[in-house]
Write a structure and sequence with these properties.
The protein is an alpha+beta fold. Helices cover 16% and strands 36% of the residues. It is built from 1 helix and 10 strands; from the N terminus they run αββββββββββ. The radius of gyration is 20 Å and the shape is elongated. It starts with a helix and ends with a strand.
Amino acid sequence: MLAKSLVIFIGIGLISGLTFGVYLLDVKNTSQLVFVEGLSISIVTEKFDFKQGEEIKIKIVNSGTIPLIFSDSSYGLRITGLSGILMYSPVAAQVISQLDPGDEIEFSWDQIKNDDDVSLEGLYKISTKGMDKQGNQVEKSTTITIWK
């Protein structure tokens, strides 16, 4: 017969494991692209975990019903560390860019920072910011992990 304390600990472990699993399903939502009515922008990557040196393809999608305007040809793309320090931003021409509803633009990042250093392993935040014709801003970000 099993000891009473062993049964209690196994029961607590099963319940906490189930609870933590349900929590992770809600928090680690992998649906990056959701179309909505109104002002919306989405950032889509093919996955969340990348090997060091692997090319990262990033799509910026107008997932709303209102055209978006950007101040340059980089479409507001910025890659930062979680501390907010800028690691990479594409070289951009000072030209006003527009992304119509449902349209997308694709960038690729070879994990080389703006100072020509190779990115280290860790967490990185990919973000973009645009606005509509009335000046209402929309911003979106996602987090990726670079592994060794």
